[in-house]
Amino acid sequence: MKVIYENLCPICGKDLSWKEIEERTCEFENRKLCSEEGVVSEFIEFFRKIVGEPREIQRMWAKRVLRGESFALTAPTGIGKTSFGLAISLFLANRGRKCYIIFPTSILVKLAVENIEGYSEKLGLRISLNKLGDLSVGFYHSEIREREEFFESLPQFHILITTAQFLAKNFEKMKDLHFDFIFVDDVDSVLKASKNVERILSLLGIGKGPKGTLVVSTATAKVGKKAELFRRFLNFTIGSSQFYMRNVEDIVVENPDILPELLSRLGSGGIIYARSVEECERIYESLRKDFRVGIVTSRDSKDFELFSRGEIDYLIGTAHYYGTLVRGIDLPERIKYAFFVGCPVFRLRVEDVEKAPPNVLRTLALLLREDERVEKLIPKLKAVEKIESELREVLKDVLSAGNLKVRDAVIRKGEIIFPDIRTYIQASGRTSRLHARGITKGASFVFETDRDVLKAFIERAGYFDLTFKPLSEVDIERLKRDVEESRVKKMEFEIIKPALLIVESPTKARQIARFFGRPSVRFFESIPVYEVPTDRYLLLITATLGHITDLVVNRGFYGVLDGFIPVYTTIKRCASCKNQFTDEKSCPKCGGVEIDDALKRISVLRKLAEETDFVIIGTDPDPEGEKIAYDLKNLLCGKVLRAEFHEVTKRALIAALNELRDLNQNLLRAQVVRRIEDRWIGFVLSQKVQKHFGRKNLSAGRAQTPALGWVIERYRQARVKKTVAYIPELDLTIETDKKELEVSVELLEDRKELRSPLPPYTTSSLLFDANTILKLSASQTMEIAQELFESGLITYHRTDSTRVSEYGMRIARDYLGDDFKGREWFSEGAHECIRPTRGVDRVTLERLIEEGVIEVEGFRWHHFALYDLIFRRFMASQCKEYEVRVKKYRINADGRTLEEERVVEATGRAYELYRSVWVKKNLREGNFKLNAELRKVPSAPLLTQADLINLMRERGIGRPSTYAVIVDKLFKRHYVVENGGKLIPTKDGISVYEFLISNYSTYISEERTRMLEKKMDAIESGKLDYLSALKELYDEIKQIT
After folding, report:
1. 788 and 867 in contact (C-beta within 8 Å)?
2. CB count, 10 Å around CB of 497?
3. Which among 16, 124, 269, 880 counts the fewest CB atoms within 10 Å?
4. 3-state DSSP assignment of residue 764
5. CA neighbor of 203 nearest in space, from 222, 175, 183
6. Residue 363: closest CA among 404, 395, 389
7. Do the Cβ atoms of 1040 and 1003 come closer than 8 Å?
8. Prediction pTM value
9. Residue 845 phi/psi, 5° resolution?
10. Lowest mean pLDDT segment, chosen from 68-77, 475-484, 878-887
């Protein structure tokens, strides 16, 4: 597609044309748009000579260091972090830079010196060790004898290699030194002494002069507050090396007696977890005669060394979160299987409630809220300290009774048993580790005889996307083969490589980063870039904040040149009034000069794309998301592919990363045509309106004009009043002006029938219910739904599909149990209905957020209310039919006869979840006189936002992504106001509408607008050429001008 980006050429700063994009060359300066910096190429050649071909991750690190950027190394074991640190230090030192390398132990210092010597020999460099020379390398460890000479030469060393302990003990002798580059091989060893952070910053010249560059490994332990200084002075934070990647088969075994049989069949390499030391000893005694087993506790870990050397086949330890065999061990070649004798749990007894901290009290209250006494205290939980005493007593009473049931815990008289899923994930994760060639496969067996505990454990594990299968469904021999092969397979290609993942919003970026552990973060002018590894990529994740370009105004025909070539430029947003524009340097609305220009984000993205040479666009799966992806592909270097996911969950993201695709040109072209059409008709009609009324603040558009017309038409109908009589006893309204009525009621039929529940929500039906039930406006609903989607709680919310995927049905099956029937609600297209991403109801969601299992930001009541609506409607759609009792009456009143069918009873899970029918009371049969209430009512009710959206859907105006936008425009232009939830046209709205209909009805009629929507759909499906559609639109618009 031919396109021009105004002033966005990265070489000359002038226009970037489609020809230049295709040829990847700047025509003005005849230079490649994307080329590797000379110094980077030199380092790569340098690295080849001393180590070998650099990995793509190492190339990326080199680009950062040579640009002078500080960062944390985020990568799995075996990727070559240490060899990179040594090589880049030698490269920089050879160019006159001063480097300092810090290791955790003396052994590693010695190895590093040996490697530096070996590298130098390969290069033909003459280095001097612990003495001055052309390239001097100083090192210090416990065996150094010439200590005085070392400290005398310390200021002149080009490369210094020491332990972290040396830094802490000898800083006074080093404090006046300045290093251009510092490499910390094990940041944990440095952070043990928190003052080391300040010492390193001092050695880098912070506050003293030119700032050096720092590269550190990620941390295994929790970093302290001092590490926040790296963010303040060097624009990065340290992440965790505990990555949440897991390739484990989770298996349930209900018979613990077959443990020995499984050990025999699977062979060497497993850990057996028990709930207590006593249980460990019992298991050890039962196995020691037939198997090579050992025990590891906090006091005795000698068997661990025997296991690591292969002299013991199995280790036994306790399943506690900070247990020796749960955290801090990384032996992927040896640890293949985990066996849990009893689900990991922790127990809270009645007597523990007295000492429980406030956060635990809140969690307990949310868990036990089915008790009326607890439910009354729920609204006061935010200020739990004020009700602490009362809450403790109530909770103790409820626990003592032990008669409540919850899905993900076991309540028995006097105690609650909580499944400890975090410990399970951490411990079973020892069997599956991420390394340079990918991720090893493991298997975890859970032996549990207590059915209630097992059920609660599996339920809670589901919140963490874990799925268990029974042992009867597992092919043990195949499992063993897969586990072994994942450890011996040598990849011919590099499996872990860097990729820049770009999404629209910071919330979405942050949510994705959390899937894989605690990310390290770099900041570019306050723009965060998260860094985490997956099994295939080292992901750099950041956000565009929506669209980055839009049509210019002052070139061609409102931003489109001859040949229908759109001209785009960066979007600017005014910090004062939030107005969005493109051409001006100050805000055309308020005159503000504090402008957020998307050019800043484009510059950052270009830098990141140059680092990775591979870009994945994870914007929303719709035409708008495709246009953002198109802009990024044109403006960034490297290979660019699209990741399409309809829910922000780890499962969906990994699937999308495994099925990357090219851009969908049809979706893109449909968006381009829609935007150009909106610009042309909007600008031309707005100018006509402004000229006619002599007011610059008026505007017009095609899609919203029919919608405005419906509001006006209904308003005029509503002004005609009629008198009706409402009969409270019958819950019936008839047209009459009599207060006393002779009424007869006759029952004609009384039957029971089964009814199917309603399908899950689409955009229009969600907007309707949210407005009708929750009284939320269309724009509020879409904003909240966007936040729910980006937080990973619901599927994509701009859809006209009711289809339910297999995974969606599985969620419903697990939640509904015997009430599940399962319906696909088939409709065409790849999109799915709007549904929850987990089988978690509102009450449980609130509790899981309180517990920190689910992380969200800024949630208020309406987030939970809308989620609850979506959850209930979806679960109801997957239920069995519900039963209703229907009564049919013949009613005579005031000489009028009418028949009415009313539902008088409804039962079933589907109805309990979502009340899709209105249950009315039975009518008294016979003849009687009744009093009525006379009311003056409109001949037709005023429209609500829900009604207006329904009309748009029924009449083919707009689409899921534009319903709320159209309604919002009517409010923003002050053509419509809302009173008591009803839409009323303003004088401006009526005047503008009448002017447009009188003069331009051909172009803005309902029929013409509907036809255009169909053409957009035809472009989207590839059935209509976008250029012919643009020509037709252009010819039409020219008739108006």
Report:
1. yes
2. 17
3. 124
4. helix
5. 175
6. 395
7. yes
8. 0.91
9. -60, -45
10. 68-77
- CATH code for the part of the protein at 38-237: 3.40.50.300
8 Å CB contact between 671 and 623: yes
What Å distances lie between residue 892 and 724, 734, 744, 896, 921, CA to CA? 16, 11, 5, 5, 18
What is the fold of 763-880? Topoisomerase I; domain 4 (1.10.290)
Confidence band for 828, pLDDT divided at 50, 70 and 90 = low
Tokens of 707: 């919608």
User: Candidates 3.90.1150.10, 2.30.30.240, 3.20.20.70, 2.60.510.20; correct CATH number of 721-756+883-938?
Assistant: 2.60.510.20
CB of 145 closer than 8 Å to CB of 137: no
Q: Distances in Å between the alpha carbon of 120 and those of 79, 124, 870?
A: 22, 6, 65
Distance between CA atoms of residues 25 and 19, nearest Å: 8
Q: What is the largest CA-CA distance in the chain?
A: 118
Alpha carbon distance, N-terminus to C-terminus of the chain: 27
Residues 641, 662: contact at Cβ < 8 Å?
A: yes
Buried b (16+ CB within 10 A) or exposed e, 457-471: bbbbbbbbebeeeeb
Of 159 and 330, the structure prediction assigns the larger pLDDT to 159
Is the predicted pLDDT of residue 491 greater than 60, yes or no? no
Active site residues: 796
Distance, in Å, from the CA atom of 85 to the CA atom of 51, rounded to the nearest integer, reads 12
Which amino acid appears at position 81 of this protein? K
What confidence score (pLDDT) does residue 663 get? 97
Torsion of CA 389, 391, 394, 396, to 10 degrees: -80
| Average pLDDT for the chain | 92
Helices and strands, number each (H, E), in the chain = 37, 45
